[in-house]
Design goal:
The chain is an alpha/beta fold. The protein is about 35% helix and about 15% strand. The chain is built from ten helices and 15 strands. The strands form five sheets. Strands 2-1-3-4-8-13 form a six-stranded parallel beta sheet, sandwiched between helices. A three-stranded antiparallel beta sheet has the order 6-5-7, with no helix packed on it. The protein has a two-stranded parallel sheet with strand order 9-12. Strand 3, helix 3 and strand 4 form a beta-alpha-beta unit. The protein starts with a strand and ends in a 6-residue tail after the last helix.
């Protein structure tokens, strides 16, 4: 395959490029290396095209002879402040729209796009007595009082979490999440109008070698590690009981490669979403403990009770659809991968 890969110098993009090239595929690398997403010392691989995905004229010649596009380019993170909203809208929403228009003009009709678990907002919940629930945003008053759980609307008891499948409603709770929902909607419209075929991969918490460190957009595992290396115990927000799924970057890259091969042969007007996850939920407090153990520091995480508005309590994915349709099962278990991550090279 000839694959145009946007965000090829990024954390996930570089891993995808490596696996594609090892399999003998041709990769057309595109990355602008914007400072908000890349540390200053990061350098793109030789032959990378320094093209902004918002520049359709610059993209057009790169699409010549391309079989499929793998779109990893995006501003990532939860949206540190409201002032970040224009960055997300510009790079993620507009960037995707321009890319899709350029693909249409070039006759490239197959796409794999990076999405995120954040499109779901809160995960899936149930009350043992009153059944499934759809909680709203947690109140500031409750969070300030140290009550971090979602509660049953009828009896007031804390709700239990359940895994989320791809049919769950979309309920973005941050500017980044809103941009990822928009990305999926643009792709769905393009699939119908072009016509074309696409796969959106909803990444859960990705970690692994060459993860960015010490930026507001770094993943929480990298932030825990940086704190320890600086001589401080890792700070855990809320009570540390937030359930998440951590998936290794090598598994995420492999899922992209499987998806690229699948979508090339997919019928027109097909748009499919997949959770990309380990299938082994882990509380955030445990993530901090495993990373600390891996460093050999002997530090104990510090549970702070602090919180961020817009964060969700629990979001845990079902891996079943990706396993059934793509043949994808994560190979790196979180307990093993996170301990190794403690000494992996970072950017």
């Amino acid at each position: 395959m000839r694959v145009l890969l946007t965000g090829s110098a990024g954390f996930v993009g570089a891993a995808v490029a490596e696996q594609l090239e090892q399999a003998g595929d041709e990769v057309v690398r595109v990355d602008l290396l914007i400072p908000q997403a890349h540390p200053a010392e990061v350098r793109a691989a030789p032959g990378t095209h320094a093209v902004d995905v918002r520049d359709g004229a610059a993209l057009a010649p790169l699409l010549d002879g391309v079989d499929v596009v793998c779109h990893q380019s995006a501003m990532v993170g939860a949206g540190v402040t409201v002032a970040d909203m224009p960055l997300y809208a510009s790079h993620n929403d507009l960037g995707t729209a321009v890319l899709l228009a350029a693909m249409h003009e070039a006759g490239v009709r197959r796409l794999v796009v990076a999405s995120s678990m954040v499109v779901y907002g809160e995960g899936r919940y149930t009350c043992e007595e009153h059944g499934p629930q759809t909680p709203g945003a947690r109140s500031l008053e409750a969070l300030e009082g140290g009550d971090f759980e979602n509660h049953c609307a009828r009896c007031g008891l804390a709700l239990g979490w359940r895994t989320v499948d791809e049919e769950a409603r979309l309920d973005p709770r941050s500017s980044y999440a809103a941009s990822k929902v928009a990305t999926e909607h643009y792709v769905a419209a393009w699939v119908r109008q072009s016509p074309a075929a696409a796969v959106a991969l909803r990444y859960h918490n990705v970690y692994g070698p060459l993860m960015p460190r010490d930026t507001p957009y770094s993943g929480v595992a990298a932030l825990f590690r940086s704190a320890i290396e600086g001589g401080d115990p890792p700070d855990v927000f809320e009570d540390g009981g937030q359930m998440r799924d951590f998936v290794h970057v090598s598994d995420v890259a492999r899922c992209n490669v499987l998806s690229l091969r699948r979508v090339v042969d997919a019928p027109d007007e097909s748009f499919t979403t997949y959770n990309v996850c380990s299938g082994e939920p882990i509380p955030i407090r445990r993530v901090a403990e495993v990373v600390a153990r891996g460093t050999g520091s002997g530090m104990t995480p510090r549970v702070t009770g602090r919180f961020r508005l817009g964060d969700v309590r629990h979001i845990v994915a079902s891996p079943d659809k990706a396993g059934r349709e793509l043949g994808f099962t994560a190979q790196v278990r979180p307990d093993e991968g996170l301990q190794q991550f403690a000494t992996d090279p970072l950017r």
